[in-house]
Amino acid sequence: MSDSPIKKCLFPAAGYGTRFLPATKSMPKEMLPVVNKPLIQYGVEEALDAGMSGMAIVTGRGKRAIEDHFDINYELEDQIAGSDKENYLKEIRRIMNQAVFSYTRQIEMKGLGHAILTGETLIGEEPFAVVLADDLCYGGADKGVLAQMVELYKYYRCSIVAIEEVPRNETHKYGVIAGDEIAPGLIRINNMVEKPKPEEAPSNLAIIGRYILTPDIFDIIRQTPPGRNNEVQITDALLTQAKQGRVLGYKFKGKRFDCGSVPGFIEATRFFFENVYKE
Fold first, then answer.
1. Is the full-model pTM beyond 0.90?
2. DSSP assigned state of 160
3. What is the tens place of the pLDDT at every residue in 34-44?
């Protein structure tokens, strides 16, 4: 039995993946393979390694492949039974044995905050993690990013976002934070801005797709008006908590690849093939 205080991980997976069209016209972007595994499987493995067993996935139209991936394919398994190819399914079978998957649909795209709120029915009244699958993280020999954040949550018991330094001219792609460093690599956040212009950014510390959130975030999201792009932004909701000193930014140990962009996806594929892939 895991001693992690975080038992569930939410995966917002309803987006269209327009930066990868036409590949994502009929295939979920979360199913794009980095070497031999889809992006969402890397995220699920990271959550399992952090002690979480409940995988809550917010999907949308055209996303059935995600559900099928974490299910038994009887015809395929019958065809390869007894052959060397069975080994290729060893990892996904382990995941299916250890994790419980639940799904709900986001009917319309209204921003990440709205996607997280859509997942409330799967999470309930408990702290939870959020993984954006197209931010692929590699912890190396150390703990994965979520496992590192769980250790912090055990002590601080508040919302935590993973952050990293980005070039100033790229702040418009991210939620950007500012605050006071209370320990090496750990910042108590007092300001957050969604996708600011470089000259308006409070720092160059950007939030990446790993969060631990306390359950009061759902009520806060409900009360948060639409922000940038007329969408409900999780950054705006977290700012409400941050003003009460209840959000930490964590400079995680490891590498992160922006697999929502073609260059980042190619970089991740090359890195994982050379450093992680085992045939």
1. yes
2. E
3. 999 999 999 99
